[in-house]
Design a protein that fits this description.
The chain is of the alpha/beta class. It folds into two domains: 2-32 and 168-252, Rossmann fold; 35-164, Rossmann fold (3-Layer(aba) Sandwich), CATH 3.40.50.10090. Helices cover 36% and strands 18% of the residues. A five-stranded parallel β-sheet has the order 2-1-10-11-12, sandwiched between helices. A five-stranded parallel β-sheet has the order 6-5-4-7-8, sandwiched between helices. The protein is globular.
Length: 262
């Protein structure tokens, strides 16, 4: 069974390399295109006032990469400013960008899901009254954590670091999609975003997904894939080794596992 990785192109390439090294048959079909902003001025301004924040939350590895691409020459991460991550990929990007380990706040390794709720569990014990928080994300996104922090007295700002667009498929990627539609039993989709599921539906609006199966990295994405008509959707941790471990038992699994409670 060929695993189809649907993450944005840069992250998909890294996943393909690691999954291949673990012996998995895998191919990439990026279902979200990530692009730089037309006007980077808001990012420059965010860097200029960065040391005034108590916490800067990064929603994805793309947010990290595009935010740090706008960093002034020679700048480092400000002392006493925490960098919040929602999952392992974002944490790895922050470390690669030079954020000190002491400044990094991330979900527990055994968290039931890697998301805003898991990050909040790590910082909820602090007093946020009167403190400033910056959320670095795409041009839009989920506001749950910002609303939760505001309810605790924090002043929360947002800055967009990149744009998300529908995918621009190459000829090889379009052929992969057709192969997956023609032989669903030989392909397994790996989703890390509900938006990716929506973009796949737009690419193949007449497709019948009832004979197709998928893995999804969060319960909300599980629900989106099921709503799209996928016949089977299992929850899988967003770590290549965990995905391969799950697939080693795939033929023996009689039914999809339930999504984790939120």
């Amino acid at each position: 069974m060929r695993l189809i990785v649907t993450r944005p192109r840069a992250q998909a390439a890294a996943w393909v390399r690691e999954l291949c090294s673990l012996g998995q048959d895998v191919a990439a079909l990026p279902l979200i295109d990530i692009a730089a902003l037309d006007d980077p001025a808001p990012l420059y301004r965010a860097w200029q006032r960065l040391d005034g924040y108590a916490l800067v939350i990064f929603v994805s590895a793309n947010a990290v990469q595009h935010f740090f691409a706008a960093a002034p020459a020679g700048s480092g991460w400000p002392a006493k400013v925490l960098a919040g991550s929602t999952g392992p990929g974002t944490s790895a990007a922050l470390r690669a960008a030079g954020v000190p380990a002491a400044a990094l706040v991330e979900p527990a390794a055994d968290a039931p899901a890697f998301d805003s709720e898991a990050l909040w569990a790590q910082v909820s014990g602090q007093d946020w009254a009167g403190r400033r928080v910056l959320v670095v994300r795409g041009e839009d996104g989920r506001d749950w954590l910002a609303e939760t922090l505001r309810a605790r007295g924090a002043a929360v700002d947002f800055v967009a670091a990149y744009r998300r667009r529908p995918p621009l498929c190459s000829a090889a990627e379009a052929a992969l999609l057709q192969s997956a539609l023609a032989a669903p039993a030989e392909h397994l989709w790996l989703f890390s975003s509900s938006e990716a599921v929506a973009n796949l539906r737009a690419l193949a609006p007449a497709a019948d997904w009832s004979r197709s199966a998928a893995l999804a990295s969060h319960s909300r994405i599980v629900q989106a894939a099921r709503a799209a008509g996928f016949g089977r959707v299992d929850l899988a941790a967003p770590v290549p080794a965990a995905v391969v471990a799950l697939l080693s038992t795939w033929p023996a699994r009689a039914a999809p596992i339930e999504s984790s409670p939120q």
